[in-house]
Amino acid sequence: MSDCIFCKIVKGEIPAKKVYEDDKVIAFNDISPQSPIHILVIPKNHISSANDINDENKEIIGHIFSVISNIAKSEGIADKGYRIVNNCGEDGGQTVSHIHFHILGGRQLQWPPG
User: Which residues are tagged catalytic?
Assistant: First the structure.
């Protein structure tokens, strides 16, 4: 999508502080962190939200969770714990229409989140 900020990050049109990249996903630091560690993981192919996961693209979700596990270990938060967040739709708090997963950690996280 030409107007999607995350697609522009994938294309290198907008800079991001990358934590991880492979041929399927990019992970980068959130520009407005909500915890000491706040990393976004996005697929390189545009998927608008969790509502758009289907038989053709479902494998990327498993790959994303594998990447999240590896990032948590490399960031030193795997043992103490972290939160994975995916917001879906306006009422769910999704502000960018490109599926993305937040990795939040580095402090005690509260529940309920809000």
Answer: 100
